[in-house]
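Hi R.,

Here's the chain you asked about this morning:
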Amino acid sequence: MLSKTHFYVFLLILGVLVLFNLPVQTARSVKAVLRDLMAPYQSLWSSRWGNASGPKGGRSEGRENELVDSLGECRAQLEALERENRSLRELLDLKKRLGNRTIACRVIARDGALGWWRSVRVDRGSRSGLRPGNAVLAGGGVAGVIQETGPHTAEVLLISDPIFYVSVRCSRTDALGIVRGGGAVARAGLLEALWPVRPPEFLYADRDEELLEGDFLVTSGLGGIFPPGLPVGRIRRFHLAESGLYQEGVVEPFAPLDRLDFVLVLVTDTPEEEEASP
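And the predicted structure, written out as tokens:
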């Protein structure tokens, strides 16, 4: 006879096997439902641990050590609140520039265990008007794009992911190019975590363009996802590609990818407009 623990483990393994063998579209629907079910717990976890990351050493019996511990906690909470307020002010300024077709979202989960993020989850979904392909912005500039949506949550593919692309131009020279995400890429079948993280890259700039380190890159508007003129990042170094046909370089994103608390999503249609359309 199987014990209860063995029975539950068997059910879990069976469920995972069934999920991996589902058709792609069905698997995405199941994942969306699971994301929505987990969203409240992820939000609670984020709010509990995200705002209390300061020192919490063991409390001494002495009054002095208790006060030091309390001050450390208060300082950590104050720094978290200041960061949150700064992010909200930056998003508000960006929202004023872009108009009403934007939706503010809170980041409730991050995909990444070693300090580099390739995607995040936000607390809004299709019922709020989010759709795959919507541009996502942070206070500093372009952060990513909506990859998948559920009714109440959505997955954001960040500019740090290797499959992210955006058309850009140099604000000083108008040189066109592509910014591709960096991240860590598995090589020769080995784990991604064994390889250093690569920064985003600036590709396909004309070989005759006079680029400089520190040049600002903004969205070109080509491709239709991002409107023109949104800040993307700055060129840190560049060189002629091995083929000799174009220039390429390394980009430092303006968006604070390592501390995203809130993002702004550019939407094309709101739920009310969709209901009103024939």
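The first strand starts at residue 102 and ends at 111.

Let me know if you need anything else.
M.
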